[in-house]
Amino acid sequence: xxxxxxxxxxxxxxxxxxxxxxxxxxxxxxxxxxxxxxxxxxxxxxxxxxxxxxxxxxxxxxxxxxxxxxxxxxxxxxxxxxxxxxxxxxx
Length: 91
Prior knowledge:
- By secondary structure, this protein is α+β, with helices and mostly antiparallel strands.
- Helices cover 43% and strands 27% of the residues.
- The protein contains 2 helices and 5 strands; from the N terminus they run E-E-H-E-E-E-H.
- A 5-stranded antiparallel β-sheet has the order 2-1-3-4-5, with helices on one face.
- The termini are far apart.
């Protein structure tokens, strides 16, 4: 379970891609140098965006690789669902 948190906003997501999309959508609202956007996996902080850094930071050893694999897996599952929906429509 992923949780996106910033000042005045907290939401939980089942999928990494949904959490990442929500966090990226919040970036324009992050105007203060002291405000940040965080993604937690369970209780562990794994991703942080703030104006003090050019790019988001991935927190922890191997986190970027694990999240990249998860991103690919979720994209493949999503594509399979689309392909199955197309096949059922054609049948």
